[in-house]
Design goal:
Length: about 240
């Protein structure tokens, strides 16, 4: 049984989500503030988190950042804020999906199921193309970066680096095809379904985040290069 953590200060909304998801077969716990939510992330070990942005004790976006620092659990933002800028900020904070209130409960459960399914399938079995390209241990590496496909782990200069699912998929695509130039459309098509609000702008945000995580100087990237007018490419062994 999958475990769902709802961090929502609106008790009526939280109770409704809890009841509905429980009837759908999920094990559900609720938190009405950020402090209880962070405690349950550790104690409960959820498989997915539904996070409201407007919490009484803390900004939900900041909480998302802190959760992402310690866990790769899928995070779905559930918010009244509908601006594109809020969605972009959620990407930067490490969210994996964004659902605007009001919403259909059928859509919510469909997204929860899809995100959990992708998470489990990605952890269980990498694509055939990647299995052929990676080593027998499911690893790809150069002198500074090591990507472990089976464990969905990224290490940079010996330090573990947390990534969102979309960031990991982009990095996996890059390292599977070093030197190949990917347009934004290529990257959108490659990770569509992992990121339900994927756009050209979202791709650029993912690239910025990845550069911060893998480059010594993100302003002068050595590994993730911009190909002006086309897109991006990964350089395996930069000079």
């Amino acid at each position: 049984m999958y475990k769902v953590l709802i961090i929502e200060d609106d008790v009526i909304m939280g109770d409704m989500l809890c009841m509905y998801l429980s009837e759908e077969g999920y094990d559900v716990k609720q938190a009405v503030n950020a402090a209880d939510g962070m405690r349950l992330v550790t104690e409960y070990g959820p498989d997915i988190i539904l996070l409201d942005l407007m919490l009484p004790d803390r900004n939900g976006m900041d909480l998302c950042v802190d959760i992402r620092k310690r866990s790769t659990v899928p995070i779905m933002i559930v918010s009244m804020k509908t601006e594109v800028s809020e969605r972009v900020q959620a990407l930067k904070a490490g969210a994996d999906d964004y659902l605007c209130k009001p919403f259909s409960l059928h859509e919510l459960t469909a997204r929860v199921f899809a995100l959990l399914r992708r998470t489990r399938s990605l952890s269980a079995a990498p694509p055939q193309e990647e299995r052929q390209s990676a080593s027998d241990t499911g690893e790809m590496s150069n002198e500074e970066i090591r990507l472990d496909v089976d464990r969905r782990s990224l290490e940079v200069r010996g330090q573990h680096v947390e990534t969102t699912f979309s960031e990991f998929e982009i990095m996996r695509l890059f390292m599977t095809h070093p030197g190949k130039v990917f347009s934004r459309e290529d990257l959108i098509n490659a990770i569509r379904g992992f990121d339900s609000f994927i756009t050209d702008r979202a791709i650029d945000v993912h690239i910025v985040n990845l550069r911060k995580k893998v480059e010594k100087n993100p302003r002068e990237p050595r590994f993730i290069k911009t190909v002006w007018g086309v897109g991006y490419k990964y350089v395996d062994n930069p000079s």
